[in-house]
Design goal:
Strand order of the largest sheet: 3-5-4
Strand content: 5-15%
Number of helices: 18
Radius of gyration: 32 Å
Shape: globular
Number of strands: 7
Helix content: 40-55%
Structural class: mainly alpha
Order of helices and strands: HHHHHHHHEEHEHEEHHHEEHHHHH
Oligomer: single chain
Largest sheet: 3 strands, antiparallel
Number of domains: 4
């Protein structure tokens, strides 16, 4: 097949499961074309026109007109019949009050509040009548009016929802010129049905017309709000969009990695479950009316960002923007605290003065990105982060706070700046390491035995001990390099389970005998003890390089490694920023947590808690709590990862073990915090739901 299909009429064509990588569709009409499950990597869809074919749209709109007339007629007959049964002033006042209040609250607060208020007014009216001891006749009239009012509210609700959905569909399906005419016609057809019944009295007819006109006006308002993405009426949009996109251009489950949609019209396109890694949306129109599923495009702010590439000063904290393309974007002064930008395309983007604390950047492309003045505390870059030709004169390693206002500028000399290419050399990670962090009660003997067991159990993982870091006052972190294929999460979990078992179950006498018999354990134990004994002085402990090769510990003579007692770890492992006297690598830990959570399947059952969403909420609560110490954050984030792994575990015993260990760690950490702490409150709400989602 010719890979150049530009400026063609491809409407209605079937490309299901086709391999169309690199194909050029620029300028083509692809309305109602089906690209489901197709491979479209690096395909060019610039200036294409998506949506529903014109003939299908006309047929659909005609059906909406007819349906609108039928529903309007039925609604009008019921309302007039109800109103005709009320023949006194009190009843009319009650109906008018209920209807007016309902529609007013509906416009301001949404359906749920409006219905609740209407019911409260109806029952309150009846109760007041009883309380004042009105006569039987008037009491009957009040009760009848209250009941009638509730029924009218129900009918009005149905009418408003129907008209709002129909109006939204008509707006999306219509062309730009005809939009206002088509939507007006839908409402006019519905309104004119109120004039059909000739046998009702003029008073009732006027009341019905006023009520119908009010319904139409409110419905039109809701259409505008729903199209604008307002939360109060988001359900109208969620109903209308799939209907408007029915038999439109489908990209469901297609691989659109690196696809170019610049200047395309995507109204009515279905992008649900498609792979959108680094897809370009520059100057796209109609993206607000496309089906985007749970991708990063679900956020209206992000849809605006990817189409305009203008994000200056905006807040993107905690969002999952993995795979987003922000090439050439203006992101000056933007905030990306805890944001997932793994595999993002940030080429030529301007991130001057941006806050990138704990931002995940695994596999991200920062080629020629401007980072001058950016705050990169604890950001999560890895060996796969592209940093070629980054433009940066200086950066700040710490986001200033009241307790620590020093931003830690690099270079330290305020008169000095990075030369071209220097920043990448300064910041690029040297190692991708396995970090074994011990927050308290460090036992060098138990650590040494557990490490020996780990190396013996995994001889092919190429464990190599490279550094010890001090974390806070009592924390200790052991860093190891591993084979690329190694599952660091599994190694860490196995090590700490064994370490805890040794401390708890193995008598000191047995530990002493093991340490004395095994020279490797004795050597590593001595290294750790010597490191701890140096205190917080900025001295360097010389230690022999300890390598674990094929399950055996060997000592390499006269090859020392620098173990700085003050925690000066340089650029090891990509950890940057914070307090250089010992920083928990929250960026790397959080990145691991995010990757593990993203492996969970999206839950479709509405009656069960969504484990993936709950874990994301818990992760964000931990990361955003400024009062929670970094070591505690690290502990809790690792338990979030364990819960995510439990959600993927098929064996009940292993799943139960992961859950029990995680909950014990949460319990131990939270007990040390005041009950009023934000994280305690968040965990008390989220953990029971997470346990339920895990099947407990």
């Amino acid at each position: 097949m010719n890979n150049k299909l530009s400026n063609r009429d491809l409407s209605g064509r079937n490309f299901v499961k086709y391999d169309l990588r690199g194909f050029v569709f620029s300028g083509s009409n692809i309305k109602s074309a089906n690209f489901s499950d197709a491979i479209l990597t690096a395909a060019n869809f610039s200036q294409v026109r998506c949506g529903v074919k014109k003939s299908q749209a006309i047929f659909f709109l005609a059906g909406l007109f007819c349906l609108s007339a039928l529903i309007g007629l039925g609604k009008e007959l019921v309302i007039t019949a109800l109103l005709a049964g009320l023949d006194n002033v009190v009843s009319n006042i009650i109906i008018f009050t209920l209807s007016t209040t309902f529609l007013t609250v509906l416009v301001r607060q949404g359906f749920i509040y409006a219905i609740l208020v209407a019911i409260v007014i109806a029952f309150t009216t009846a109760a007041i009548g009883i309380g004042f001891g009105v006569g039987p006749g008037l009491m009957s009239a009040i009760a009848a009016a209250a009941i009638t009012g509730v029924l009218i509210v129900v009918i009005v609700s149905i009418g408003v929802i129907f008209l709002s959905v129909v109006g939204t569909i008509a707006f999306i399906l219509s062309g730009n010129i005809a939009q206002s005419i088509v939507v007006f016609a839908v409402f006019a057809v519905e309104f004119l049905t109120a004039l059909v019944d000739k046998e009702i009295s003029n008073q009732v007819k006027v009341q019905a017309l006023i009520l119908t006109g009010s319904i139409d006006l409110v419905s039109f308002y809701i259409v505008i709000q729903a199209l604008a993405g307002k939360n109060n009426f988001s359900f109208v949009r969620s109903i209308a969009l799939p209907l408007a996109a029915w038999r439109g251009t489908s990209f469901q489950r297609a691989d659109l990695t690196d696809a170019d949609f610049s200047q395309a019209t995507l109204k009515g396109a279905d992008l649900r479950n498609a792979i959108l890694i680094r897809a370009c949306w520059k100057n796209v129109s109609g993206l607000n009316y496309a089906l985007v599923g749970n991708s990063y495009l679900q956020h209206s702010m992000i849809r605006q960002l990817v189409t305009s590439l203008q994000g200056k000063g905006q807040n993107f904290d905690g969002l999952d923007l993995s795979g987003i393309s922000l090439k050439d974007a203006n992101l000056q002064d933007a905030s990306f605290i805890g944001t997932n930008l793994n595999r993002a395309n940030l080429k030529n983007a301007d991130l001057s003065r941006a806050i990138m604390r704990q931002t995940q950047l695994d596999g991200a492309n920062l080629t020629r990105t401007i980072l001058t003045g950016a705050y990169i505390e604890d950001w999560g870059i890895t060996s796969t982060t592209e940093l070629e030709n980054v433009q940066c004169e200086y950066v700040f390693m710490h986001v200033p706070t009241k307790g620590n206002p020093n931003p830690l500028r690099k270079p330290d000399n305020l008169q000095e700046t990075f030369a071209d290419g220097d920043f990448a050399d300064f910041i690029k990670p040297y190692l991708d390491t396995l970090d074994l962090y011990h927050s308290q009660d460090v036992d060098p003997r138990a650590i040494s035995i557990a490490l020996k067991n780990l190396s013996t159990n995994h001889p092919d993982e190429e464990l190599e001990f490279v550094a010890i870091e001090r974390r806070g006052r009592n924390g200790l972190n052991l860093k190891f390099t591993t084979a690329t294929r190694a599952n660091k999460s599994e190694l860490s979990r196995e090590y700490f389970a064994d370490y805890a078992r040794i401390k708890k179950e193995l008598p000191i006498s047995v530990q002493l005998k093991l340490a004395e018999r095994d020279a490797e354990i004795r050597t590593l134990k001595g290294t750790i003890e010597k490191f701890i004994q140096t205190g917080t002085h900025q001295s360097t402990v010389r230690a022999e390089t300890i390598q674990v090769i094929q399950g055996e510990l060997v000592v390499t003579e006269n090859k020392g490694i620098n173990i700085n007692a003050g925690g000066d770890i340089g650029n090891v492992g990509g950890l940057v920023g914070g307090n250089v006297s010992g920083v928990v690598n929250l960026g790397t830990i959080s990145g691991n947590v995010t990757n593990t959570i993203n492996q969970l399947a999206d839950r479709s059952e509405s009656d069960q808690p969504d484990l993936k969403k709950l874990l994301i909420q818990l992760q964000h609560a931990i990361q955003s709590d400024i009062d929670l110490p970094d070591p505690d954050k690290a502990d809790l984030l690792e338990q979030v990862q364990a819960l995510a792994e439990a959600g993927q575990e098929k064996e009940p015993a292993k799943k139960d073990g992961l859950m029990r260990k995680a909950m014990k760690m949460f319990d131990a950490t939270l007990k040390s915090l005041p009950d009023t702490a934000k994280i305690v409150e968040a965990c008390s709400k989220l953990l029971p739901l997470i346990m339920k989602a895990l099947g407990t």
